[in-house]
Amino acid sequence: MRTGIIGTGRIGSTLARILVAAGHQVVLAGARGPRALGPLVTELGTAASAAHPAEAAARTELLVLMVPFGAVRGLLPPHAVQDKVLVDATNAFGGPGAPADLGGRGSSDLVAEWYPGAQVVKSLNTMHFETLAVAGTASGDRLAHFTAGDDVKAKEIVAGIITDLGFAPVDTGPLHSGGILQQPGGPLFNRPLTEAQALAWISH
């Protein structure tokens, strides 16, 4: 599967590296345009290419948002992600380290509202980039990455990618309730858990 990654900061570039290492193809997009991504594309080799955000959406089956949450609305024309799996890996902050006040709504609820034709899955947002870079190939128990969404097939697709990366997919439920668990201020945010620990927490 070819995966688009919009946002190539520390977390987005880390995801690109481990996806390519796991045998996936990636299309990268960032705020400064494809030319600025030349060094990263060169590093990743023939499995990577760069594009503008809408082009990345058109060329991929699955798209991961790794931009600041405030940049998500209007980032893509809604038709660009029609019927595509859209992974919301953003985090909504209202200040340094403080979760944004969204009036009780989940940040992924808003993403789904802005892109109503997409199959939105909240995932890949809870782990620090330094952990993400190495934990999937480390020895010992697999760490969990969480998935929340209302489309079962979309969650299965994302879970398959998580497994390819060497992590354990753990389903936290529907997009609203499961997404709130993962976002800043939620109990699963920035909390590395093994698969067993995550499943025990979910079932408690």
Automatic annotation (TrEMBL):
Keywords in alphabetical order: Oxidoreductase
Q: Report domain Pyrroline-5-carboxylate reductase catalytic N-terminal positions.
A: 4-91
Keyword Cell wall biogenesis/degradation tagged:
no
Q: Extract the Gene3D superfamilies matched here.
A: NAD(P)-binding Rossmann-like Domain
Highest taxon of the source? Bacteria
Key word Oxidoreductase present in the record?
yes
List the InterPro entries hit by this protein, alphabetically: NAD(P)-bd_dom_sf, P5C_Rdtase_cat_N, STEAP_metalloreductase
- PANTHER family from the entry? DUDULIN-RELATED
Protein name per the record: Dinucleotide-binding enzyme
